[in-house]
Amino acid sequence: MWITGRTHMAKAIILGMAASAIGIFSYVQLGVEAKIMWAGPNAVIGGLLFGFGIVLAGGCETGWMYRAVEGQVHYWWVGLGNVIGSTLLAWFWDDISPALATSWDKVNLLNTFGPLGGLLVTYLMLLAAYLLIVGWEKRFFRRKNQAIGATTGETA
Asked: Which InterPro entries does this chain map to (predicted)?
């Protein structure tokens, strides 16, 4: 998305999240207990590590596995780093979890804003993410068209 301007997958993920939100909301309203997790630095740190890792490794968890089995030797190093990192996290989790996750509040929008308010806030955040993606897409292609026009001598 950031490099090529292709935002189809990001839009699809947001639309999928919107569809799943109403499904999960209906289950919670029927009495199924919601699984609420901590909102702490763990989310930001994990997201950044995942983002950088997936770019540097050239793929996701499943991707490095099948590429390594295909014989792409550089993915063996990715796998080794993945195993070492996961092992270290599991080893030290009891020591670092209070600072990163478990001592932070669990955020439940349904409790904070009420059932319909929580659903509305969820959809407003998804709409904001969707609009940011559409804005990025338009900005990317506007800059790309200006760059093409500058090289060909045309004005946009």
From this structure: Sulf_transp_TsuA/YedE
